[in-house]
Each structure stands twice: as C-alpha cells, then as structure tokens.
Amino acid sequence: MNTGLKNEVETLFRGLVGQMAWGAKVGWGSFVTVEFGPKRLQNHHYHGDWHLWLYQCDWSLKSATHEMANSESKRGVMQTAIDNLNGREFLKISFDRQHMVTRFVFRGDLCLACQPYGDSEPNEEAWMLFMPNKQVASLVPRGLKCEPARLNGERTVSPR
Fold this sequence. Notes:
Elements: H1 4-12, E1 21-26, E2 32-36, E3 40-42, E4 45-47, E5 50-54, E6 57-62, E7 67-70, H2 75-83, E8 90-96, E9 101-106, E10 110-116, E11 127-130, E12 135-140, E13 143-148
Antiparallel strand pairs: 1-2, 2-5, 3-4, 5-11, 6-7, 6-10, 8-9, 9-10, 11-12, 12-13
C-alpha cells in the first residue's frame, strides 16, 4: 500500500487538530465550507485562518448512531446537519488512499466523510484547504496539489 499520499493528507491537517469549527454551511449545490481559527474579513466575507471547502465530491455527515445527511439530501436537511459542526472541536483526519475517502472527525462522535465523484476529471478537487500560509491544498483523483491561494483569480476563497 502506498502510504505517501495518506501521510501527506493527514499531515496537512495537523494544524487544525484542537480547533473549533465555525461558519459551517452548505453553499451552492451541495458544497460545504467550514472555518477554523480567528475570523478575518476577506473580500467582504469572514473566513478563518483555515478554510475547508468540500467541492466536487460525495459527502456524508454521520453521528455515532446514524447518517444525518449526505450530498444528495434535501438542502434543508443538509444545512441542519452541517450546522452541528459549528462549535465542535476538530479531533483528527483519516485518509483511505485506496478509496480516496477523507474522514474529518469532530468531538461528539461526528464524522464528515467525502470522496471524489466516481466520474471526476483528473483536476477536479474533492476538497480544498485554504491555509494561513496563503496556500491552498486540493485533493484531486490523482493525488494532492498545493498552490498559492490568490485573492483575484480562479483559486480564491469560496463564494458565499
């Protein structure tokens, strides 16, 4: 098993461990964004130092006992479920390289899991992590890519 990508993805999120999620919401379609760290005004919107954007992927949010919602749920169900992430401590991430599944675990036995769409193009991002160092890391079907997070360009913090 190739552990290189698994280690890269899991290492990328170490800075989030112990931080509280806020601003979790469903955006366009089934996109999900979650903020971490101090609030900062950027392009007329508040974002955290860390900004997670589930983008072109299937996702589900589960508690210890049941699935609360997934990317195919009705919009109101999605938002009600995602609201549960607000104020929750981020505990850990796990990445399954074979199935390209990323699991974000929060206090209270909440697990937000996602994986690229089955028919994803090679450069379609399943998720993007905007980081305090002004870089954005993206999971694409063929691996992980990192690049500068530009304020005025195609790679910018998600629209609200």
